Amino acid sequence: MDDKHLLVFENVSYSYDEEDASEAFAVKDVSFTVDKGEFVVVLGHNGSGKSTLAKLSNSIFVPSSGKVYVEGMDTSDEKYEFKIREKVGVVFQNPDNQIVASIVEEDVAFGPENLGIEPKKIRERVDNALKAVGMYEYRLHETHRLSGGQKQRVAIAGMIAMLPDCIVFDEPTAMLDPKGRKEVMKTALELNKNADMAIVFITHFMEEAIFADKVIVIDGGRLLASGTPSEIFAQKEMLEKCGLDVPDIVKLAGMLREKGVPLDGNILSEDDLVREYLKILNP
Amino acid sequence: MVILEVKNVSYGYSHGTPFEITALNNVSFSVEKGELVGIIGHTGSGKSTLIKMLNSLLKPESGQVLLHGKDINANKASIKEARSKVGLCFQYPEYQLFEETCAKDIAFGPKNMGLSTEEVKERVLKAAEFVGFSKELLNKSPFDLSGGQKRRCAIAGVMAMFPEVLVLDEPTAGLDPIGRFELLRMIENYRKDTGATVMIVSHSMDDIAKTADKILVMNKGTLAMCGSVQEVFSKADTLIEMGLSVPTATSLISRLRAEIPELSPDIFTVEAAAEELSVYFKGRTSK
Amino acid sequence: MIKDITIGQFFPGKSFIHKLDPRAKIILTFVFIVALFLCKNFFSLGLLFASALISIAVSKISFKVILKGLKMIVVLVVFTGILQIIYNDEGTLLWKPFQQFDFAVTTGGIFSAVFIIIRIVSLILFSSLLTYTTSPTMLTDAIERLLSPLKLIKVNVSSLAMMMTIALRFIPTLIEEIDIIMSAQKARGADLETGSLTQRAKALVPVFIPLIVNSFRRAYELAFAMECRCYTGDNKRTRMKEMKLGIRDYTAFLIVLLLVALVIATSFFNISSWFIFERVI
Question: Is B83–C189 a contact, with Cβ atoms under 8 angstroms apart?
Answer without folding.
Answer: yes
